[in-house]
Every structure is written in structure tokens, then in C-alpha cells.
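Predict the structure of Phosphopantetheine adenylyltransferase.
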Amino acid sequence: MKKAIFPGSFDPITLGHYDIIKRSIPLFDEIIVAIGVNAEKKYMFSLEDRTRFIEEAFADEPKVSVVTYEGLTIDLCKKLKANFILRGLRNPADFEFEKAIAHTNRRLSKIETVFLLTAANTSYISSSIVRDVIRNGGQYEMLVPEAVRVKNKK
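Done. Here is the predicted structure for Phosphopantetheine adenylyltransferase.
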């Protein structure tokens, strides 16, 4: 069984994340979206909201599930018996950063990292940009899945 972990903070999930997950569905038997928890970090959205956003966005996709975790992604992979880490790449800077992590993870665990390039129409979107747009009252709706848009309307 080909099982992949897609780790991140997803604060919030963006259309870029959504696209990577959707495009990876044919590649894996199971995709676990793993929301990393870092006590040092200040999040815009609660862990419960971030989990719900992803669950709602993929409610009709049985191959996709969501977990939260602390610690190393490779430890989560071992615990959940996942053979792959899935990552999206937007630009050359992402590649350089992710390459170093992938080499380290493979050295420590033999777990392979699979990279998907973001779609051209979402390659400029990042969670930090979305948070900045929301904070400043901008039109963020075209950057995120419907579940995030609904939450922020309340």
C-alpha cells in the first residue's frame, strides 16, 4: 500500500495545498494530511479550524484523512506506516529548502519524499500571503477552498 504524509501547518489550507492533494490522489492509496503543531508558533486559525477546513474540503474523498502531530515527520511516518512524504514546490527557493529536508529524512529513515510542482495558477499562493490578506481585510476568497471562506464570513 502506497501511503503518503502531506505535512504542514495549513494556517490556512490554500488552493495550492488543495491542488497538490487532489493531484496526488491517483498516485497513492492513502494521503494523510498531517497538521504539525508547534507550541512556539502563533497561528491565525485554531487547530480545530484547520483540521475542519481540510476535512470539509475533502469530505467526498475517502483516500484523504487528517491528523495532527508534534515532533519529526519521519516519526509520524513510522507510526502510521507511511512510505512517502508528499511536498509541493512553488519555486526554486522551495526546492532548495525541501531538498535538504528530504535528504535528511531519507538518511534518517529511508522514507522517500515525492515532490509535485504547484499548478501555474496557484504557484504564487502561500498561507502567509493569505493570512496577510485576511488581516488587512482584502479579498482572500480566490486563494482558499470554500471551507475557509465560510469560516471567515462568520
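The two ends are 41 Å apart (CA to CA).
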